[in-house]
Amino acid sequence: MVYTNGTVIDFSGTAGQVREAFRTEIHNLEVNGVKHIANIRDPEIPAALAPAVAGIVSLHDFMPHAMHTMRANYTFSSGNATQWAVTPPIWRRFTT
After folding, report:
1. Secondary structure of 10-21 in the HEC alphabet?
2. How deeply is 25 buried, as exposed, middle or buried, from its count of CB atoms within 10 A (0-12, 13-18, 19+)?
3. For position 92, what pLDDT does the model report?
4. Are the C-beta atoms of residues 29 and 37 closer than 8 Å to each other?
5. Is residue 32's pLDDT more than 80?
6. Rounded to an integer, what distance in angstroms lies between the CA atom of residue 96 and that of residue 93?
7. Which of 64, 10, 60 is nearest to 35 (CA)?
8. Please, how many CA atoms are within 13 Å of residue 81, restricted to the half-sphere of its CB?
């Protein structure tokens, strides 16, 4: 299906059809106890689509998530005023 904005093509197919069309394999994976499907190597755009396709967004079911952890609200009282402590974010490395 080509969306009306002309910038997105949505398709569906079997893992075998994806393997043949994009020269990549779709595998079942388990990451941190959660099951996923994903391509193992970068897909190739078929020559017939190359003039119209700039790239492939995804062939997997991983959902985006924040790369930082929110901290608690760091406030404290000093006399009659509330003070806010300024702290840097805690960054997590994304590992698969």
Report:
1. CCCCCHHHHHHH
2. middle
3. 58
4. yes
5. yes
6. 10
7. 60
8. 3
